[in-house]
Design brief:
The complex is a heterodimer of chains A (382) and B (136). Chain A is an alpha+beta fold and 382 residues long. Chain A contains twelve helices and twelve strands. In chain A, a hairpin with a 3-residue loop joins strand 11 and strand 12. The longest helix of chain A is centred in the first third of the chain and has 16 residues. Chain A is globular and about 55 Å long. Chain B has one domain. The chains are: A alpha+beta (382), B mainly beta (136). At the A-B interface, helix 4 and strand 6 of A face strand 5, strand 6, strand 7, strand 8 and strand 9 of B. The complex binds zinc ion.
Chain lengths: 382, 136
């Protein structure tokens, strides 16, 4: 089976939720940027995999093509919660891996509303939010973080440090929604949403899009595109295995551990080989959990890891140098491909002031609550 | 005025006797669920599910103190996940404690209590009974 490469990839600068143009125009922007990044045209694409959540029933991929070129190619529209973009990317990877196509386009796009996510409940009877606890995302991820606090004594301050770090990183990323330093006092003193997550420890709802052109090895060679190509060393998707508390406590750990194990095996590398990670920091509490879930440190060591600076730019394994979902922003369906953009940019040595030195291997991770986990491991080629 | 309805289907309000929580249990692997089901999602066994009465005593597993919710929902409140003695994990509001992390301890013993569902009514005006946790 052929290796699969990313030859063109880009994202728009993320913007305030609801401020962007219509979803098909947002998607079209990133698609054109990704095509320009590798010097190809829409006529060169053999299929489109489009990730979008908000209008999952409304043929967003076709609408993107109606903006940039209706070539009659197959379009697959994907929805998989916050793993939507990564799932679209992976569908494209799989089609090339299977030998069906040589060149495909993956687009992730989201136009967001503001405010709290989750907690809708639905069904008949009476609303359950605030009656049977909270199913809002900040509370769900607060409780997931509290499980770590219960086991290992992780503190509010340690969770808050994640947000300080990622906001600092975003000051170096012109495509992030925010470029604002947020010291520890500011993060901890911000409005409490769901203890221990303050407002600055919750991801930012934004409008955004990202797109990638994926290609088979023989086509990359034929077109002379290997110089800036990035190899997809592993692509893994998991769902949530049964856990005793998962009816009331969505489990983001087990599906991540399962995906990480498979990804390292597929890539033939270990966690120690990874030079940078873009992981799913939908809330500051989540990032702490994923240090351990991804094997970046041992179980119980994540609190120390954030304290030590190992995951900051310049540290042993920088995490979320883009600013992460906490400050770059989290346009649900676009996030998975935006993460790949960030890692690919470092592997190409094109990340400017936030460049991770000598980056050769990078990992992306997303979680769609419900649950889906997608992990990609990417490798520098040239 | 009709009798209150249960807020969730795993809360049972018998004609006589105290309310209780019910959890379907897989007789093949012992897993306990909330709400009716026919197949066990842990082991895949079919037609082995029998409802069991869950305990009213348990321990606080984890919690969050919710300060921002949807309009009309009173904050702050404590969202709690409780492991019941004998099996089953349920989520609800922890009441009778200060909404202060210094006052809430992981593992603290709690009991399930049954009360009116914070005055919430459905469109037909029916009132509801729900369950809460309080320290014991
Ligand atoms: Zn079973």
């Amino acid at each position: 089976m052929s290796d699969v490469y990313v030859v063109g990839i880009d994202m728009i600068k993320f913007m305030k939720a609801g401020s962007g143009p219509a979803v098909e125009l947002l998607g079209a922007q990133a698609a054109l940027m990704a095509l320009d990044d590798c010097g190809l045209k829409i006529q060169d694409m053999e299929a489109l995999y489009c990730g979008n959540l908000g209008q999952a029933g409304a043929m967003v991929g076709q609408r993107v093509l109606q903006q940039i070129g209706q070539t009659g190619i197959p379009v697959v529209n994907c929805a998989n919660a916050c793993a939507t973009g990564a799932t679209a990317f992976r569908e494209g990877w799989m089609a090339i891996k299977a030998g069906v196509y040589d060149t495909v386009l993956a687009v992730g796009v989201e136009k967001m509303g503001g405010g709290l996510l989750g907690g809708g409940g639905g069904g008949g009877g009476i609303p359950k939010e605030g009656l049977l606890g909270s199913m809002t995302m900040p509370a769900v991820f607060a409780e997931a973080g509290q499980e770590h606090a219960r086991k290992y004594g992780t503190t509010f301050e340690q969770f808050a440090k994640v947000s300080v770090k990622n906001h600092h990183h975003s000051t170096l990323n012109p495509k992030a929604m925010y470029q604002i330093e947020t010291p520890l006092e500011t993060v901890m003193g911000a409005e409490m949403i769901a203890y221990p997550n303050t407002k600055l420890m919750c991801s930012v709802n934004v409008d955004g899009s990202a797109a990638a052109v994926l290609m088979s090895e023989k086509k990359v060679k034929a077109l002379g595109l290997m110089k800036r190509a990035v190899r997809v060393k592993a692509s893994v998707l998991t769902s949530d295995p049964w856990q005793e508390r998962d009816l009331v406590m969505p489990d983001v750990n087990t599906c991540t551990r399962l995906a990480a194990k498979k990804a390292y095996e597929m890539a033939g590398v270990s966690a120690q080989d990874i030079n940078l990670v873009e992981l799913h920091d939908c809330f500051a509490t989540a990032e702490i959990l994923h240090y351990e879930n991804l094997g970046l440190c041992g179980d119980g060591e994540a609190g120390h890891m954030i304290d030590s600076g190992a995951t900051a730019l310049g540290g042993k394994v920088p995490v979320n140098v883009s600013g992460g979902l906490l400050s770059k922003g989290h346009p649900l369906g676009a996030t998975g491909i935006a993460n790949v953009y960030e890692v690919a940019t470092h592997l190409r040595g094109e990340a400017g002031k936030r460049q991770v030195a000598n980056a050769r291997l990078g990992m992306t991770h997303v979680i769609g609550l419900g649950s889906a986990c997608a992990i990609h491991i990417l490798e520098k080629v040239a | 005025m009709s009798k209150p309805l249960p807020a969730v289907d795993y809360l049972k309000l018998p004609e006589s006797g105290e309310p209780y929580l019910e959890g379907p249990k897989c007789s093949a692997c012992g897993s306990i669920y909330l709400g009716a089901r026919k197949v066990c999602s842990k082991c895949g066994a079919r037609e082995k599910i029998e409802p069991v009465r869950l305990a009213n005593e348990g321990h606080l597993y984890v919690y969050s103190i919710v300060h921002r919710s949807f309009p009309g929902i009173q904050v702050p409140y404590v969202s709690a996940i409780v492991d019941l003695e004998g099996g089953g994990t349920v989520k609800g509001n922890l009441i009778g404690v200060d909404a202060d992390p210094a006052k809430i301890k992981f593992g603290m013993p709690v009991r399930v209590v049954y009360k009116d569902a914070l005055g919430r009514k459905d469109r037909e005006g029916n009132s509801y009974t729900s369950y809460f946790f309080e320290p014991r």
